[in-house]
Design brief:
By secondary structure, the chain is mostly helical. 59% of the residues lie in helices and 4% in strands.
Length: 199
C-alpha cells in the first residue's frame, strides 16, 4: 500500500478533469481517501442533477474499499500547528491595545495569516507534543513571533482605506468589464500613457 507522499499527486490533477471515477481510482491506488478527495466527491454529488451509472459504481467501489480497510479515510485534522495559537494570541493582544486607543477595527485573520507565512510551523500530533512545542516556542521563538506580528500590524495599518470610494466590477460582457477596468485605471493612474502613444 502506498503512503502519504503519493497523495500529493492528486492535488496536481487540474480541477476541470476531476471526476468521481478519477478520485476513486486515485484513492484505491494510494490506499487513502484524503479530506480534499472527500470534499470534492461531496461537491460533485451536491451539484450534479443526476449521477451516471459509472459514478454510482465508482462510489460503490469506494464504500466497499472503506468498509474492508483497503482504503483508509484520513482524518480532517490529525495534527495541529501550535504556531497558529501562539500567533493568534499575540495578534489579539496587540490588536486590543490598538483598538483601545484608536477608531480602527483590525482583522485578526489577515494579521495572523501575514505573520504565519513568515514563521516556521510547529506541528504536534498529541497534547504532550503540543505542550513541548509551546514551551520551545516561548523560549526560542517568542521574539520572532512578536516581530512578525508587529510587522503584520504595520503593514495592515499602512494599507489605504478605500471605504466609500471602492467600486465593485459589475458582472456583464467581456467588453464592459474591460471598460470598467480601463476606467478604474484612469482614475488611479491618470498620467499613464500606453507605449504605442509615447514618442
Amino acid at each position: 500500500m502506498a503512503g502519504f507522499p503519493l497523495i500529493s499527486r492528486y492535488r496536481d490533477v487540474p480541477s476541470n478533469v476531476m471526476s468521481i471515477e478519477k478520485i476513486v481510482e486515485q484513492a484505491l491506488q494510494d490506499g487513502y481517501l484524503t479530506p480534499v478527495m472527500e470534499t470534492e466527491v461531496g461537491r460533485i454529488c451536491d451539484t450534479a442533477s443526476e449521477l451516471s451509472i459509472e459514478e454510482y459504481m465508482a462510489l460503490d467501489r469506494l464504500m466497499g474499499a472503506l468498509l474492508t480497510g483497503e482504503v483508509v479515510a484520513v482524518p480532517r485534522k490529525q495534527f495541529i500547528n501550535v504556531m497558529e495559537e501562539l500567533v493568534v494570541t499575540e495578534a489579539v493582544s496587540r490588536i486590543a491595545e490598538i483598538e483601545a486607543t484608536s477608531d480602527r477595527v483590525l482583522d485578526v485573520g489577515d494579521i495572523a495569516a501575514y505573520a504565519l507565512n513568515r514563521l516556521p510551523p510547529l506541528y504536534a500530533t498529541t497534547e504532550e507534543g503540543a505542550t513541548y512545542q509551546r514551551q520551545r516556542a516561548k523560549e526560542e521563538l517568542q521574539e520572532l513571533i512578536t516581530q512578525q506580528v508587529n510587522g503584520a500590524l504595520a503593514r495592515y495599518l499602512d494599507r489605504p482605506d478605500f471605504g466609500a470610494e471602492r467600486q465593485a466590477l459589475v458582472k456583464s460582457s467581456g467588453n464592459d468589464v474591460l471598460k470598467q477596468v480601463s476606467s478604474l485605471l484612469q482614475d488611479y493612474a491618470p498620467n499613464f500613457e500606453p507605449k504605442s502613444q509615447r514618442n
